[in-house]
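Prompt: May I have another protein with tokenized structure?
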Amino acid sequence: MKACRRKYIEWGAAGIGALALFLFFFRILPYHLFHREQTQLFLLATEPLAGYLRHPAALARLSGDFLTQFFYYEGGGPAIMAVVLLLWGVVVFRLLVPYMGRWAWIPTVLAVAWEAGRQCGLSYPLSGTIALTGIGGVLLLCRSCMRRSWKSGLPVSILAVLSGYWLFGCGDWSSRWYNMPDLGREYLLALDSEMYFGRSEKVRQLLAEGEYRSPFTAYYY
């Protein structure tokens, strides 16, 4: 009964966290996600898809680029971001809970917040978070195999690590290792995006309510 109650608490906390992440990207940084979709191109064709297989992190890069195209839809980007970051948090929690018990939620929250911060940038790809989640999943698989049997678990773990490197790589570290929400940049991206859609009334409203002054806003005036 106690274990069942703890499961409900864990999944309830995960649901609240996912909702908070969705609202964060939906209400505060939606145009960041839209801009990222506009500056990336995913082609469902043989040659581009084959190109993913020539480099490590094939699955992470493929799935990240595929999902990024749905950032175009209102609410699509925040929903995808919430699910991906939730999966990252679940993996981190599962990795740490055998050693830290109920206190594993503290580093889990910090890990999700850190990764959400990195996703606030314009250059950090969605595949970066997917890669870290995949690596964590591989580590969970290795730990499970080693606990069952050392002799059979070792070769399976070696194979899992090698396959995991090809599928997920070792994370994306070419971008900044940390980031913070930039509301001034979000304001300029909002102006640019609404102008792109031809919503002149929305642009006028943003200009009237804007708290961030920049020479770039003169163009929209």
